[in-house]
């Protein structure tokens, strides 16, 4: 549904094959057998080992080690795994002079492909920002860049065409070096447009995405799974699992507005989750989604829990049907909700709102649950206490 | 593309829907009905599997035609269409929009509803429209609304009760522009509940590259003379709002802009989260809601620090609307409307009798022949030419019977002699009608249409069939041959001299001249001749287009001209047998040979 980062391993693999040579990197997963994997490497070479989870500034943060002997790799890998990372990359270390390190980034913009480039690549690029130049790709600018970087224009053209063909939205290599006729990406980050997955014929897929930092929680994973299988959309991000504010928002824009309101009131630290559905899901889906939110509520030790089931005035999402699923889930968990005096605040509008809101009111009444139910007569953000 | 709202306000909307999303289509029809249009602004749906879809028009029903693509729509329709609404899936957005832009000459623009359209596809379409002066709103757009004039999308709601909101009909002075579809409707709700009205409302979509950019949306509002104030809802992500701030600073936007940029909450996350819409992620400070709001405020926009504050700011916008738009009590009955079990377009019963195409059956019977009424009912509308009536009469007579030896008659006779009743015996005869016997009229019509439309050389046409070892329907007879021609075909051909061009018959004859060279019984048979002449009459005299003729073959129209007269023949054979009271038929032994299968 947006721009997503794929692993460096995958990024290098697909570009290498586009350039017509084999990529020799190694991916190491936490759950794999380390010893076995490292054994296959040549003993006399030197290596780079780094975290492959879409993180920037790895070298500065101590997530990248270079010029390492094979027998040391295991120690370094353990070190990184202990920092809660799951995915590492091992490559042969290529000795080179610092002054050969160059920087290039490509970004898809409305005008075409923007190219950012500099002769002074490397870890200090942050301090060299004024050396980074920008052009929009054209026959003329590419020649200019080629002359400036002293990189064969054919290599740059190839890179641009691979960028386009594989529906890449953003590519950054810092640094890269040129060795003979080859471009070598010492570091490479690629964001693809995941809506184009169908059109790249398996060159990359959802399996190649990396999630930044800590792995997703089981709840976030379940929400992702739900989203993948539905034409509607579901989003779940965890903030503070110990908090007391639970959200079950609807509508892409209204959900952010509602979350903003909590933030503006200085209560952001109490938010457990940012949960959003939109695009007219069916009742089975809203049922499952609500169950996920309630499971979070059960886990949090906080007192005075409250759930916001709130959203804008929908254009085409059926309130009756979406609420039917939500009510079913609340109903199954009513013992818990009652016992912990969880408050339920509802605000929603859209197709069949009267029926949907009435169902919700009835349900809360009958179960003796605490809460309030409003329709569009209430200003969207006024539901946030 | 900057959208000329004024122009849209002054042109009658003629919409084609790409793909089908019934609740949205119904809501547009309801909007049209409530504004008092005499017919829907939607003229058809481009979709698969169906020929039409049923919708309510008020509390009555109507059929909206469905076309497979824009090549089979009537030409005059393509010329008429000035707007499209695309509800196809994201994968098909580029392909279908591209064809639509190329096929429709009088198109002003359209809306794309699908979420998750690839960036590169949006950008291709963006590039394409720059040189052809058409607008596209979206992807991920719920549409464009001009009160009382145009509802192009789900915008404003899809349920009938939502459509009773006066803000959809009574024009005002506030333009509502939004990145989010839901917030579009939320803002309409806010404006409406404050007693204010809109000049127009546009959801430009929350994608990374909306084809109508936020800047273009806001300039469209600036240029619209009916707009005095602008409400703009934006989100974190991207840097469009800085460009809007620039436009305001440069006095290119002079109308007051009321705005809120959602996404401050992003700061509460340790890593920037991706929110619901594709663009909604702030990777750096510039893309944050805070930075954008600051820049807009400095440029002179009226920025709400929260949505609640925005609402109270909107309250102060002066309203221009004078009279109140009353919701007609009559419309309330639309809430309880119900779908009929099935639909008929050719006839209906009244308290006073049966009406066929709104004419009383008795009147028709007095004024017209049986052939006239039959042909009209079969065609689904009153025929206009004397020639069709005359030819149908001739066909009915010529095909009424072909003796007792043909398949259908044999079956009828055998059934009758087995003691079966009239309907069973007739049915048994009718069931033999198919591509080999009698039912080849429709297939023959398909052949001749293909020949005329494609302009294929008749020799190649014959070759296509023989290389696939496929017989040509409409050609060939068991008994008749060049030396012994079918007298019925001769008569049909003689009659056809009344027509001018006879291009279908001409093609059929050319095919016959080639096939009879090969074998003398490969003559144009009665099915083939009848199909060709019917096509010529329908084309020349009834004014049907090739596309319409094709649709007739799709419903097996042409076979009716064999089935109807021959039913008379079968019934007659049944009665004949019953009168003679012949006993049960059994094949004499010598008529069935026993042959062993050779290995």
From TrEMBL, chain A:
The keyword Acyltransferase applies. It catalyses: oxaloacetate + acetyl-CoA + ADP + phosphate = citrate + ATP + CoA. GO terms for cellular component: cytosol; succinate-CoA ligase complex. Keywords: Acyltransferase, Nucleotide-binding, Transferase. Residues 216-385 form the ATP-citrate synthase citrate-binding domain. One of its GO terms (molecular function) is ATP citrate synthase activity. InterPro entries: Citrate-bd (IPR032263), Succinyl-CoA_synth-like (IPR016102). It comes from the Bacteria. GO terms for biological process: lipid metabolic process; succinyl-CoA metabolic process; tricarboxylic acid cycle. The keyword Methyltransferase does not apply. This is ATP-citrate synthase citrate-binding domain-containing protein. It comes from Candidatus Woesebacteria bacterium RIFCSPHIGHO2_02_FULL_39_13.
TrEMBL record, chain B:
PROSITE patterns: SUCCINYL_COA_LIG_3. Its EC number is 2.3.3.16. Keywords: Metal-binding, Nucleotide-binding. InterPro entries: Citrate_synth-like_sm_a-sub (IPR016143), Citrate_synthase (IPR002020), Citrate_synthase_sf (IPR036969), Succ-CoA_synthase_bsu_CS (IPR017866), Succinyl-CoA_synth-like (IPR016102). CDD domains: CCL_ACL-C (cd06100). One of its GO terms (cellular component) is cytosol. Pathway: Carbohydrate metabolism; tricarboxylic acid cycle. PANTHER family: ATP-CITRATE SYNTHASE (PTHR23118:SF42). It comes from the Bacteria. Pfam families: Citrate_synt. It comes from Candidatus Woesebacteria bacterium RIFCSPHIGHO2_02_FULL_39_13. One of its GO terms (molecular function) is ATP citrate synthase activity. One of its GO terms (biological process) is tricarboxylic acid cycle. This is citrate synthase (unknown stereospecificity). The keyword Nucleotide-binding applies.
């Amino acid at each position: 549904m947006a721009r997503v980062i794929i692993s460096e391993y995958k990024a290098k693999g697909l570009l290498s094959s586009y350039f017509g040579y084999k990529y020799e990197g190694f991916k190491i997963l936490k759950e794999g057998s380390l010893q076995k994997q490292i054994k296959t490497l040549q003993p006399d070479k030197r290596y780079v080992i780094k975290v492959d989870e879409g993180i920037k500034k790895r070298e500065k943060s101590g997530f990248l080690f270079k010029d390492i002997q094979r027998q040391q790799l295991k120690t370094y890998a353990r070190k990184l795994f202990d920092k809660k990372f799951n995915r590492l990359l091992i490559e042969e270390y290529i000795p080179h002079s610092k002054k050969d390190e160059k920087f290039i980034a490509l970004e898809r913009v409305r005008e075409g492909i923007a190219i950012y480039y500099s002769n002074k690549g490397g870890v200090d690029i942050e301090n060299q920002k004024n050396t980074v130049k920008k052009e929009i790709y054209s026959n003329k600018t590419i020649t200019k860049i080629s002359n400036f970087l002293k990189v064969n224009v054919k290599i740059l053209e190839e890179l641009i065409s691979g960028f386009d063909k594989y529906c890449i939205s953003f590519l950054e290599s810092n640094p890269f070096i040129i060795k003979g006729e080859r471009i070598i990406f010492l570091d490479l980050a690629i964001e693809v447009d995941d809506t184009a997955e169908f059109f790249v014929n398996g060159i990359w897929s959802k399996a190649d995405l990396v999630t930044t930092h800590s792995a997703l929680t089981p709840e976030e994973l379940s929400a992702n799974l739900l989203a993948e299988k539905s034409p509607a959309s579901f989003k779940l991000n965890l903030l503070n699992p110990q908090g007391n504010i639970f959200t079950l928002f609807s509508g892409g824009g209204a959900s952010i507005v509602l979350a903003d309101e909590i933030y503006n009131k200085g209560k952001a630290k109490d938010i457990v989750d940012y949960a959003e559905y939109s695009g007219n899901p069916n009742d089975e889906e809203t049922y499952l989604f609500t169950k996920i939110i309630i499971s979070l509520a059960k886990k949090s030790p906080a007192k005075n829990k409250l759930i916001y089931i709130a959203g804008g005035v929908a254009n085409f999402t059926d309130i009756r049907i979406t609420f039917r699923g939500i009510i079913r889930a609340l109903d199954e968990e009513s013992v818990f909700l009652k016992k912990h005096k969880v408050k339920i605040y509802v605000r929603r509008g859209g197709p069949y709102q009267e029926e949907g809101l009435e169902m919700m009111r009835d349900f809360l009444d009958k179960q003796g649950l605490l809460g309030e139910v409003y329709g569009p007569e209430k200003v969207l953000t006024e539901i946030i206490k | 593309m900057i959208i000329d709202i004024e122009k849209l306000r002054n042109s009658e909307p003629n919409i084609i829907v790409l793909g089908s999303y019934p609740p949205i289509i119904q809501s547009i029809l309801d909007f049209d009905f409530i504004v008092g249009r005499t017919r829907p602004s939607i003229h058809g749906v481009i979709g698969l599997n169906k020929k039409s879809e049923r919708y309510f028009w008020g509390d009555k029903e109507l059929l909206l035609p469905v076309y497979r693509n824009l090549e089979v729509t009537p030409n005059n329709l393509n010329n008429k269409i000035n707007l499209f609404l695309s509800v196809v899936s994201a994968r098909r957005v580029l392909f279908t929009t591209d064809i639509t832009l190329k096929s429709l000459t009088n198109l002003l623009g359209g809306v794309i509803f699908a979420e998750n359209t690839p960036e590169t596809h949006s950008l291709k379409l963006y590039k394409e429209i720059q040189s052809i002066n058409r607008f596209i709103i979206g992807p991920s757009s719920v549409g464009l609304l001009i009160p009382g004039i145009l509802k192009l999308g789900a915008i404003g709601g899809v349920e009938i009760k939502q459509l009773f909101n006066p803000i959809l009909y009574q024009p005002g002075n506030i333009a509502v522009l939004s990145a989010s579809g839901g917030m579009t409707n939320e803002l309409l709700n806010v404006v409406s509940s404050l007693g204010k009205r809109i000049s127009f409302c546009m959801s430009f979509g929350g994608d990374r590259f909306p084809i109508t950019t936020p800047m273009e949306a806001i300039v469209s509002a600036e240029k619209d003379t009916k707009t005095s104030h602008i409400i703009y809802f934006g989100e974190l992500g991207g840097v469009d709002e800085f460009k809007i701030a620039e436009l305001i600073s440069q006095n290119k936007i002079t109308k007051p802009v009321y705005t809120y940029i959602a996404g401050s909450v992003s700061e509460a996350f340790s890593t920037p989260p991706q929110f619901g819409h594709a663009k909604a992620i702030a990777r750096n400070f510039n893309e944050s809601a805070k930075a954008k709001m600051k820049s807009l405020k400095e440029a002179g926009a009226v920025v709400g620090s929260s949505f609640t504050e925005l609402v109270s700011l909107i309250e102060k916008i002066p309203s221009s609307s004078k009279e109140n738009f009353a919701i007609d009590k009559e419309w309330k009955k639309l809430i309880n409307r119900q779908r009929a079990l099935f639909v008929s377009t050719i006839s209906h019963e009244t308290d006073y009798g049966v009406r066929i195409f709104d004419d009383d059956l008795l009147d028709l019977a007095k004024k017209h022949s049986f052939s006239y009424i039959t042909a009209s009912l079969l065609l689904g509308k009153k025929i206009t030419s004397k020639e069709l009536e005359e030819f149908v009469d001739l066909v009915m007579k010529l095909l009424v019977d072909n003796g007792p030896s043909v398949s259908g008659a044999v079956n009828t006779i055998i059934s009758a002699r087995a003691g079966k009743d009239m309907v069973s015996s007739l049915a048994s005869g009718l069931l033999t009608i198919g591509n080999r016997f009698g039912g080849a009229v429709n297939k023959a019509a398909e052949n001749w249409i293909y020949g005329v439309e494609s302009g294929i050389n008749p020799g190649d046409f014959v070759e296509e069939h023989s290389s696939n070892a496929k017989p040509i329907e409409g050609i060939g007879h068991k008994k008749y041959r060049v030396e012994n021609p079918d007298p019925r075909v001769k008569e049909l051909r003689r009659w056809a001299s009344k027509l001018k061009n006879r291009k279908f018959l001409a093609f059929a004859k050319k095919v016959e001249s080639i096939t009879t060279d090969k074998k003398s019984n490969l003559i144009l048979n009665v099915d083939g001749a009848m199909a060709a002449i019917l096509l010529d009459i329908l084309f020349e005299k009834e004014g049907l287009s090739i596309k319409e003729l094709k649709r007739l073959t799709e419903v097996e129209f042409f076979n009716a001209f064999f089935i109807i007269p021959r039913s008379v023949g079968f019934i007659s054979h049944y009665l004949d047998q019953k009168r003679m009271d012949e006993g049960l038929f059994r094949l004499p032994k010598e008529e069935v040979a026993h042959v062993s299968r050779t290995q």
